[in-house]
Design a protein that fits this description.
Structural class: alpha/beta
Mean pLDDT: 96
Radius of gyration: 21 Å
Largest sheet: 7 strands, mixed
CATH architecture of the largest domain: 3-Layer(aba) Sandwich
CATH superfamily of the largest domain: Type I PLP-dependent aspartate aminotransferase-like (Major domain)
Distance between the termini: 51 Å
Number of domains: 2
Bound molecules: pyridoxal-5'-phosphate
Number of helices: 12
Strand content: 15-25%
Low-confidence stretches: none
CATH class of the largest domain: Alpha Beta
Strand order of the largest sheet: 2-8-7-6-5-3-4
Order of helices and strands: EHHHEHEHEHEHEEEHHHEEHEEH
CATH topology of the largest domain: Aspartate Aminotransferase, domain 2
Helix content: 25-40%
Shape: globular
């Protein structure tokens, strides 16, 4: 039986699947709702028309993309590593640093990949709760660090799915104490216009993770990157497979970054739309709470969870967290275009009028 050959600790593992659902409006994965402009699309077409581009292996070291990113963030190229989504960096960090059963500190609720990747790499996840308003309690993290002696610590800011951030001051406090790799995931960092990347030069153990999947609208091409000390980058490179990031992804990530003004405008628009969406969600009777958010999504708590299915039947997808657990009756809604947000609110309001 093939099952008998599976690693013992993975015998009961359920593979990650994201269901493919039909939709008109997709507000469940924090993607960018705006299409790329003509210039980007025509660059992509030109790239495809050069017959060498598809036949040849990509640059395994992603040199040009790393150069563009280094210039953008005012760091050296040796401080940049590119990956197949930032998911790959999360996995690679754990792969290179963890011995079996080593502990990894991570917030809860937060991005599920930290826990999954820790387990897949034979580590032990140690979760710390966020405060009731989802803010970070750094003293709690520091106490846990002293008690558990973890190999890695994750911080997500803005945190997915709660939308809160960690303050600069709190990161300084962590950096004064934590000596193991400290991973700050800024997948939604573009929405707050600030970053912890500036601290990398003074802290060999800090890595900041970023992605092109969210504000830059390239989720389908899977481009992530990390900024860290050269020694941290060299360590991760040990486990990065050759030719990992395909050539089209490298090219388009670079092109998008070179045209970032367009994306900056959309980021500002999303932030404006978020305020409109938040204000309107608060007027709906069965919405008990709209948590403040610094990202391109809002976490809400509802008194009637069936709204998730009702919206799905209207071909509007949102991310529900079920009726049990720490996020019971919570729903994460990606901020869409003005039009998408209006349609969502309209359907959510209509639901109130339905006979129960
Ligand atoms: C906090 C956070 N980090 C990382 C990722 C992974 O992004 P990528 O598409 O770059 O793998 C996500 C995706 O949802 C995320 O929410």
């Amino acid at each position: 039986m093939i099952k008998d050959y599976i690693r013992e600790d993975l015998q009961e593992f359920i593979p990650y699947h994201a269901p493919v659902k039909e939709y008109d409006i997709k507000l469940d994965a924090n993607e960018n709702p705006y299409p790329h402009n003509e210039k980007i699309i025509s660059e992509a077409k030109k790239w495809l028309e050069d017959c060498n581009n598809l036949r040849r292996y990509p640059d395994t070291d992603c040199n040009e993309l790393r150069e563009t990113l280094a210039k953008y963030w005012q760091v050296n190229k040796e401080n940049v590593i590119c990956s197949v989504g930032s998911d790959q960096l999360i996995d690679s960090l754990l792969k290179v640093f963890l011995e079996p059963e080593d502990k990894v500190l991570m917030p809860t609720p937060s991005f599920s990949m930290y826990k999954l990747a820790t387990k897949l790499n034979r580590g032990t996840p140690i979760e710390f709760n966020l405060n009731d308003d989802f803010s970070y309690d750094v003293n709690k993290i520091i106490d846990l660090y002293h008690k558990e002696h973890p190999k890695c610590v994750f911080i997500c800011t803005p945190n997915n799915p709660t939308g809160n951030i960690i303050t600069d001051n709190d990161v300084e406090k962590l950096l004064n104490v934590i000596k193991c790799p400290l991973i700050i995931d800024e997948a939604y960092g573009e929405y707050i216009e600030e970053s912890m990347i500036g601290k990398v030069k003074d802290h060999e153990n800090l890595i900041v993770l970023k992605t092109f999947s969210k504000a830059y609208g390239l989720a389908g091409l899977r481009v992530g990157y990390g900024i860290a000390s050269k020694s941290m980058i060299d360590a991760i490179n040990i486990v990065i497979p050759p030719y990992h990031l395909n050539a089209l992804s490298q090219f388009l990530a670079r092109t998008v970054l070179e045209n970032d003004a367009e994306y900056d405008n959309k980021i500002k628009e999303i932030v404006r739309n978020r305020k409109w969406l938040s204000d309107n969600l608060q007027t709906i009777k069965y919405v008990e709470k709209v948590y403040p958010s610094y990202a391109n999504y809002l976490l809400i708590k509802v008194s009637d969870y069936s709204i998730v299915e009702v919206l799905e039947n209207k071909r509007i997808l949102v991310r529900g967290y079920g009726e049990q657990g720490e996020l019971a009756n919570c729903i994460r809604i990606t901020v869409g275009t003005e039009d998408e947000n209006k349609k969502l609110i309209k359907e959510m309001k209509k639901y109130l009028d339905l006979p129960r």
